[in-house]
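fyi for ur records
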Amino acid sequence: MDEILPGVWHWTTTHDRWGIEVSSYYLGTERVLIDPRVPAEGLEWFDEHGPPEAALLTNRHHYRHAGRFAERFGTRVLVNRLGAQEFTAGEPVEFFAAGDALPGGVVSVPVGAICADETALHIPAHRALALADGLVRMPPDAPLGFVPDQLMYDPERTRRGLVDAYRRALELDWDTLLLAHGMPMVGDGARAVARVVAEHGGPY
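which gave:
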């Protein structure tokens, strides 16, 4: 567990199915998880640092270990309602719409393009933005870029949609980028996103 900003914790785990490192986050003061998997320290870490009250998913595929937190701590699990079709086995989820205010003062920001429920999470208290699958760092410390083409249904169209969404996100006040796939970019995340937007969609 690495405290990357005051009160913002980051950790990585290996995805069971894909065998790649993925990132999770905890906003300690707000008691909010983002795309959670259980860290190496176990759920006991949260007994010491404060049990999470909510888990926010950046898309439906990032349910990950959210159910374990719900069972242990009664954590609410929230996901964009456009991904509701993923949850048919009684998972303890609640749904939000794009633009909704979420626990911890977080605001959902529509992204779409790569999937209908792709959502960014704006975290004003920490001047941060959490992204799902559109932009990644593979390997985890590589430069920021789009997810590989083979993971997009229509790569050219998807990239155009993502560029438009990220251009809108750059109008918000944030500088730290919290990635689901790749290490976070503390303090220079917005500049990195702006470079991608400029490279693929003209000047920001």
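The chain has one domain: 2-201. thats all i got for now
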